[in-house]
Each structure stands twice: as C-alpha cells, then as structure tokens.
Amino acid sequence: MHRVFSGIQPSGVPTLGNYLGAIRNWVPMQDRHDCLFCIVDLHAITVWQEPAQLLAQTREMAATLLACGLDPKRCVLFVQSHVTAHAELAWIFNCVARLGWLNRMTQFKDKAGKDREAASAGLYVYPNLMAADILAYKATSVPVGDDQRQHLELANDIAQKFNHDYGTEFFPRIEPFIQGVAARVMSLRDGTKKMSKSDPSDQSRINLNDDTDTIALKIRRARTDAEPLPGHLAQLESRPEARNLVGILAAVTGTLPENVLREHEGQGFGAFKEVLTEALVAHLSPIRAEMLRLLQDAPALDAALRQGSERAEAIARPVLAEVKRLVGFLPRG
Ligand code: AMP
Ligand code: TRP
What we know:
The protein is mostly helical. It has two domains: 206 residues, HUPs (Rossmann fold, 3-Layer(aba) Sandwich), CATH 3.40.50; 92 residues, Tyrosyl-Transfer RNA Synthetase. The protein is built from 13 helices and five strands. Strand 1, helix 1 and strand 2 form a beta-alpha-beta unit. Helix 3 crosses helix 12. The longest helix is centred in the C-terminal third of the chain and has 30 residues. The site of adenosine monophosphate (AMP) has 17 residues, from helix 1.
C-alpha cells in the first residue's frame, strides 16, 4: 500500500482546474491507499492573504473537498498550520536545498513576476515546505496537476541529498501521479495560461461554487476562434482555447478529446458551448449544493479538521523525531 499525500492552497474558491487536475483523482485513491489531503495555508500566505478571507476560504476549501467526495473516515483531511511538523521539517530542508535549485523553479519566476525583489522569502522557499509536507509522512505517491512536476523533482533532490549527507536511506523516492486529459486546464480568457483561483479575472475560471447562470455566462463569454471544430486533435494544435474547451468536455463526460471531436466535428462554438454548459452544470451542481450545505455547520467542519490533524500528527511525530536524531539535535531531556 502506498502512502498518498497531496495539498491545495486555500487562496480562493477551488476551480474546475483544481477539480479536474487534482481533487477528482484523489477521491478513488481513498479506497486503495493510505491517503492524506492537506489544506496548505502556510503555502497560501507566501503571497498576501486578507486574514478574514483566508479563514473563510480555509473552511470553504474543506467543505468543497468533502463535497467532491473526500471522506474523513477513509482519508486524513487536515489543515497544514495545525501540524507543526511541516514548518519544522521545512526549516531543516531550507538548510538542505541549494539556492541554485530554487533559482530554477519556474513557478517562483511566474508568481514573483517582474519585481522579484518584492517577493516574499516564503515564496522563494515554497518548494522546500512542499517537500516537507510530503516527507513528514514519508509519502511516496503525490497526485497533482502538471504544473507541480518541477516541485516534485526538487522534493526528490532534497530527499536524496538529505539521505546522502546524513548517510541514511531514511526518505523514500516520491512518485508524481499526474493523470488524465485535464492535468492542465487553461484559462477561459487565454488558452496559453493555466486556469487559476488567483487570476484577477473571475471570467477566466469556473469556480466550484458558481451557480448555473454564472457557468452559462462564463462559457458563453469564453474566448474561442471563428473556425468550426475539426475532426482530429492534431488540428487543434494552434488553437489553444478550442483545445481547452474540448478537453474540459472530455474530462467531465469521462471520454477522450478524440471522441468529443468525432461527435462534434464541423460544429461552431455556439452549439458546442451549449453542450459544454449542460455537461458542466450536471456535473458541478450537486457538488455546489453539498458544499453550501456543509458550510452551514462550521463547528462540524472544524471538528472534522481537528480529528484529521490529530491523525496526521500521530504519523509525522516519529518521522520528525528520527530526522532530528539523524541531524544531531540534542534530544529534549
Ligand atoms: P493550487 O490551486 O495551486 O493549490 O493547486 C492545487 C492542485 O490543483 C495542484 O495539484 C495543482 O497541480 C492542481 N491545479 C491547479 N490549477 C490547475 C489547472 N489549471 N489545471 C489542472 N490542475 C490544476
Ligand atoms: N504547491 C501545490 C500547488 O500549489 C500545493 C501543495 C503544497 C502540494 N504542498 C503539497 C501538492 C504537497 C502536493 C504535495 O498546487
């Protein structure tokens, strides 16, 4: 049995990209593996978060994950800042990772933008904290969207350097699990940018709490081109917006983009968008309803998260104790 770990930032309402690229793949893993899913608030504050909003979004994220099918009886669902092992191990990893490795991270470059001097130090060492998240549980399988591939390579580099420097085989190899036709869902406004909960334009994404009218409007306004749909995927290569919408329909209806094209070949986007809207609404409205229901009982949500953090802590505690021993820290007497 593998141990599975994945995380999601409470930096906004989860999007269709989070759902298709990550969350949806987590649900069936609960029955086959020992799973931990973490709401990574320490990662979220690497860019500014309004405190009241962060608090609300953390509960919203928990409600959404439960509504999508994570079951606290079959997985460990918890909040990162509730388990101090993450921050402690991250510090040790700050001292293992090399500046040269962090300098290669494309997500830092994207998120820091032009004014790199003004980015937080936390944003820079973000991947070290992510490595700590996974390795505090010695997890070996990490289901994520395609954008996290480079971070997982870095996590493996950290694990190997730690093992090498301290003469041990303590940390296992991490295998990324990047799956599905929708490992990369793109913005509805720009087919070359990923759909993101932190994009300034709400029109660029479908949020999992969007109602039917909002979904319909966003899809109707989604950028496309004037050509009808072709019969083959290769013909969509230079049409990123069209390819994205085809990929989304394939993912929510559980088929391949090739089959979507076969069925809709020659159609214009007017008709295609109606089909897409219908499929999205059918898929997302039960999730939205359940999420709204769960949010009405904040104490129950908080209690479920507290139980999750207790279970997570019980796994991480002995791992961290062994790391401290390997590093040569004096045991607390
Ligand atoms: P984040 O929103 O950055 O916390 O990401 C949480 C999870 O969703 C990660 O596994 C990401 O790889 C995945 N993810 C985020 N945005 C997308 C997207 N546009 N397409 C596919 N997966 C995504
Ligand atoms: N960096 C991930 C993202 O933004 C979230 C994350 C934090 C994560 N820690 C993790 C994902 C550990 C997988 C494993 O998408």
